[in-house]
Request: fold
Amino acid sequence: MYSITSTKKLHNGIEMPRFGLGVYKMDQPEEAFNSIRKALDTGYIAIDTAAFYKNEQQVGEALRASGKRREEIFITSKVWNTDQGYDETLRAFEKTLTALNTDYLDLYLTHWAVPDKFTETYRAIERVYDEKLLQATGVSNHQIHHLEKLFATANVKPMVNQVELHPYLSQVELREFCQKNDIVITAWSPLGRGRVLQDETIAAIGQKYGKSVAQTIIRWHLQSDHIVIPKSVTPSRIEENANVFDFELTAEDMAAIDALNRNERFGSHPDHFSF
Ligand code: NDP
Reply:
């Protein structure tokens, strides 16, 4: 069950890869290019970038250098907070396409729910979706109350909500809400930015399968039905993180990792972000 090319069907029928490379903090162009190229050569079929990461250009360059066709790779990007609002988002989307040197995007997200702006931002995302420049609409860092507000003005519900999610922050309520509304969850900081990697319970579980803590966590995400986008600039880890399709955690192992939740965030809280 599951391979590196497994996908999950979004509510508009588009197939989104369940596993991909996150590229936050890859702000050195050469490092970003090399890491993305390494991931594509390893068989990754999805890249998660954002205008804020300042590496959309390297995503496009690595894709072309890899020899893969554009349609083979699922690219997500996001509109940054200072570019939100209707006209601003349309302009930001154009810039993102130019930086990536592509004529369409697979998924475009409102990066954070900027108060008084995020519904207009999403309306602009719907417009580029209607114009067929975008395969799927989505949001990021949206709480239940943001989504409820969005539903009141949206023509089409977002297909994806990308949120901080790892064994120490399992977001049960938000996940249930999204599931009921056909919104697929992507886990950002799936390894807790590396800070869940010292966990002894997960290490002991991984040992039974000959897998590292990172691999065990990634497998927990996959079996929990989250899209998972671990970031690494280390070639051996880029390979290691993709080597998670030859084992399966038991229900007991899954429950033991679920029980580690302590509602601990390593990133900003969506309601308290300093916009
Ligand atoms: P992750 O949870 O993916 O952790 C990345 C860290 O873990 C890096 O320090 C990396 O080190 C290390 N690491 C990766 N693999 C291993 C391994 N096998 N063994 C040991 N250490 C490892 O953190 P991110 O915050 O980067 O989240 C992933 C992606 O989620 C981002 O890149 C971005 O695409 C997205 N994101 C989205 C946000 C949003 O607001 N929508 C916010 C934050 C992230 P090294 O690179 O040195 O190898």
